[in-house]
């Protein structure tokens, strides 16, 4: 297993720059998930590590060896494709053995390696079948088996479960996690699904327009997003973002959205803002709704209710903006109900309106 | 499962079946005509109206392979009894086999040599056209080629001239370089002719094979050539079979170039068979026998590859 290092990696497709100065270190045995929208450069980064894509400049190091000029086959990594890419003209066994045949191992060796991987993944009974006779989940298990059989230095996965249906995805997610824990293989996993990212990753890398936006543990990315893009990309429902005017910075400050009455917050929560143009970001679970007028609550009406079973998402209007709040289920029946809104100042985020960068409190 | 059909659908369905039958009859009649004439005695070959019921005979096939001459008087009984069955058939028709005066060996007709030439030229040129076409198509499909569309159009454009237009310059060139009336000359010609077709068809098939198959192999430590050999070729087999059938049929049936570029040594069957019509009184049943045997290789080749061919025909119609 290995440590992967990307330093100042740039990639151009013609005149379009798809990777802009990517610097990233993936530690030995770490599970890193690259998260971003389609076209953000996450797959290109993965393919560059694999050697399926050349880089325009910069270095890629695997286990201390510079590999950016090596062929894919000489990098000793394995790649799992979204399309599984199992060879239709070979059986499952031949598919899994295929990488071993490249390094000319003996027949007996191959058979025992294939058996071991198949046992590990629980696909022994499928060995004589053809890929076309497999379910989606089994195809993916075989694809992972083919990747693992050679005991590569690192396992790269490009949306490996993106083509499966929701229920199977959940199951495979758990399996991949179990696999990682059992094998402790250095893994890089690309997805656009933030739930996958949160549940699998040791560290998440959020990418946008070819630039790394934030690299951090899942809870760090969720609780302390580095900028507006990360804030709105991670989390469901999306974080509420509104222009906000901050009035007063003493013991009590006022956060005013539009022309609405302001939210009263302790001055310490906003003291670092210095009166710059600011956007307020607040996750739905930090928007607190009550039925009775409480301290600092603003009176308004619900505009929409989405019941989700375990909880409801309730929309309210404040100063021309819609805030979405996460409430216990059954809190509101429909639109037009009178509620009082307050914000949890501890969980409020502030972003520079011009740059989108997070404005954190010092310390 | 029971299907509900309206009267209109039933009528349309029957009409479609009837139309298929009519088309089938129109297309199969000439083949039946040739096949039946090949087994008719000479006297029945050209009767009006045509003879439908007759006792089949192998005489035309016996005559096809040897050079014969008309006999002025019937053969004596002793020679007749000593002759093999096929020579007796020829005697029965009032002809005798031409033999070498010194060695007494039978003089073959030109048919078998021409047939062999057809086989040699068609098989080799098909093999070359399909293998080169597959490699070219792979290159166009997988790599960024500057001016790709222009190249592909250029390749196809070689097919746009009718053979008659290029035949005379080709003839002059071939005569100058000594390729006239050689197997190699015809093979080169047919390969070039079929290559454009083969490149276009194979590009369609290879485009359908996901790149990830090869990428997976590349990551696993195979070279691109190995990946092509172990992954792309087996996956493209259906396309290769379909392309091979078409190339073979085109090369096998080619007439214009073969007529102009060859006369003896490398002549193929298509120009030879009609040339027999002109020599003396045409023996239509012998010509039919020659044409009938000529149909067989294509029929057998197509039959052997029929499964691939069917899949090849419907490729792209169904998403995997």
Automatic annotation (TrEMBL), chain A:
Is Amino-acid biosynthesis tagged as a keyword? no
Give residue ranges for domain ABC transporter: 4-234
Q: Quick check: keyword Transport in the entry?
A: yes
The protein's matches in SMART domains, at most eight in alphabetical order, are given as:
AAA
* Recorded GO CC terms: ATP-binding cassette (ABC) transporter complex, substrate-binding subunit-containing
Q: Which UniProt keywords apply?
A: ATP-binding, Cell membrane, Membrane, Nucleotide-binding, Translocase, Transport
- Name any Gene Ontology BP term: carbohydrate transport
Superkingdom of the source species: Bacteria
Report a single Gene Ontology molecular function.
ATP hydrolysis activity
So what family is this one in?
Belongs to the ABC transporter superfamily.
Q: What is this protein called?
A: ABC transporter ATP-binding protein
Record organism? Marinibacterium profundimaris
Question: Lineage in the entry?
Answer: Bacteria, Pseudomonadati, Pseudomonadota, Alphaproteobacteria, Rhodobacterales
UniProtKB/TrEMBL annotation, chain B:
- Keyword Hydrolase present in the record's keywords: the answer is no
What InterPro entries does its record include?
BP-dep_ABC_trans_perm, MetI-like, MetI-like_sf
Q: Where in the cell is it found?
A: Cell membrane
Write out the GO biological process terms. transmembrane transport
What name goes with this protein?
Sugar ABC transporter permease
Q: Name one GO cellular component term.
A: plasma membrane
PANTHER family, sorted: ABC TRANSPORTER PERMEASE PROTEIN, MALTOSE TRANSPORT SYSTEM PERMEASE-RELATED
Looking at the UniProt entry, the stretches that span the membrane are 15-35, 119-140, 152-172, 184-206, 227-252, 284-305
Source organism of this protein record: Marinibacterium profundimaris
Q: Which Pfam families match?
A: BPD_transp_1 (PF00528)
Q: Specify the taxonomic lineage.
A: Bacteria, Pseudomonadati, Pseudomonadota, Alphaproteobacteria, Rhodobacterales
Say which family it is in. Belongs to the binding-protein-dependent transport system permease family.
Which CDD domains is this protein grouped with? Answer: TM_PBP2
The ABC transmembrane type-1 domain covers which part of the protein?
A: 115-305
Question: Do the record's keywords include Magnesium?
Answer: no
Q: What is its main location?
A: membrane
Bilayer disposition of the protein: Multi-pass membrane protein
The record's keywords, sorted A to Z, are: Cell membrane, Membrane, Transmembrane, Transmembrane helix, Transport
């Amino acid at each position: 297993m290995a440590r992967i290092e990307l330093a100042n990696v740039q990639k151009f497709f013609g005149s379009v720059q798809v990777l802009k100065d990517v610097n990233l270190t993936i530690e030995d045995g770490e599970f890193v998930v690259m998260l971003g929208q389609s076209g953000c450069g996450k797959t290109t980064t993965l393919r560059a590590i694999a050697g399926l894509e050349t880089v325009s400049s910069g270095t890629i190091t695997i286990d201390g060896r510079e590999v950016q000029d090596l062929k894919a086959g000489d990098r000793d990594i394995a790649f799992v494709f979204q399309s599984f890419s199992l060879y239709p003209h070979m059986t499952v066994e031949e598919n899994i053995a295929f990488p071993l045949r490249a390094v000319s191992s003996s027949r007996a060796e191959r058979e025992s390696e294939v058996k071991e991987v198949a046992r590990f993944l629980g696909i022994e009974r499928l060995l004589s079948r053809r890929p076309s006779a497999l379910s989606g989940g089994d195809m993916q298990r075989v694809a992972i088996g083919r990747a693992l059989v050679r005991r590569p230095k690192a396992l790269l996965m490009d949306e490996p479960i993106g083509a499966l249906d929701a229920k199977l995805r959940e199951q495979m997610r758990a399996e991949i996690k179990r696999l990682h824990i059992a094998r402790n293989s250095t893994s890089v996993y690309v997805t656009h699904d933030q739930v996958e990212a949160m549940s699998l990753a040791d560290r998440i890398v959020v990418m946008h327009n070819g630039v790394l936006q934030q690299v951090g543990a899942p809870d760090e990315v969720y609780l302390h997003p580095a900028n507006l893009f990360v804030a709105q990309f991670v989390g469901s429902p999306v974080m509420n973002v509104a222009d906000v005017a901050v009035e007063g910075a003493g013991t009590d400050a006022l956060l005013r959205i539009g022309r609405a009455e302001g939210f009263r917050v302790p001055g310490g929560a906003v003291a670092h803002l210095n009166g710059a143009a600011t956007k307020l970001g607040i996750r739905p679970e930090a928007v607190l709704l009550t039925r009775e007028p409480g301290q600092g609550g603003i009176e308004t009406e619900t505009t929409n209710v989405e019941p989700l079973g375990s909880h409801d998402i309730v929309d309210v209007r404040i100063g021309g903006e819609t805030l979405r709040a996460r409430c216990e289920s059954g809190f509101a029946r429909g639109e037009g109900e009178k509620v009082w809104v307050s914000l949890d100042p501890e969980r409020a985020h502030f972003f520079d309106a011009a740059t989108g960068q997070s404005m954190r409190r010092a310390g | 499962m029971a299907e509900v059909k309206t009267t209109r659908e039933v009528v349309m369905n029957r009409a479609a079946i009837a139309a298929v039958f009519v088309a089938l009859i129109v297309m199969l009649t000439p083949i039946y005509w040739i096949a039946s004439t090949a087994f008719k005695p000479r006297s029945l070959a050209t009767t009006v109206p045509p003879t439908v019921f007759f006792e089949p005979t192998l005489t035309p096939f016996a005559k096809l392979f040897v050079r014969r001459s008309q006999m002025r008087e019937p053969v004596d009984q002793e020679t007749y009894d000593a002759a093999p069955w096929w020579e007796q058939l020829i005697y029965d028709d009032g002809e005798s086999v031409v033999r070498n005066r010194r060695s007494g060996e039978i003089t073959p007709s030109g048919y078998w040599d021409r047939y062999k030439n057809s086989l040699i030229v068609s098989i080799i040129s098909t093999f070359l056209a399909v293998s080169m076409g597959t490699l070219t198509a792979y290159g166009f499909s997988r790599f960024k080629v500057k001016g790709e569309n222009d190249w592909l159009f250029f390749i196809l454009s070689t097919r746009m001239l009718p053979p008659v237009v290029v035949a005379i310059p080709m003839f002059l060139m071939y005569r100058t370089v000594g390729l006239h009336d050689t197997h190699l000359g015809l093979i080169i010609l047919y390969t070039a002719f079929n290559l454009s077709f083969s490149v276009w068809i194979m590009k369609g098939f290879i485009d359908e094979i996901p790149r990830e198959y090869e990428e997976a192999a590349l990551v696993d430590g195979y070279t691109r050539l190995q990946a092509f050999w172990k992954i792309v070729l087996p996956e493209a087999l259906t396309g290769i079979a379909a392309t091979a059938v078409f190339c073979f049929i085109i090369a096998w049936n080619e007439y214009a170039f073969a007529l102009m570029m060859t006369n003896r040594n490398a002549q193929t069957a298509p120009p030879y068979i009609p040339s027999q019509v002109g020599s003396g009184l045409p023996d239509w049943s012998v010509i039919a026998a020659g044409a009938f045997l000529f149909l067989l290789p294509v029929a057998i080749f197509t039959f052997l590859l029929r499964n691939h061919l069917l899949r090849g025909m419907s490729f792209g119609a169904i998403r995997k």
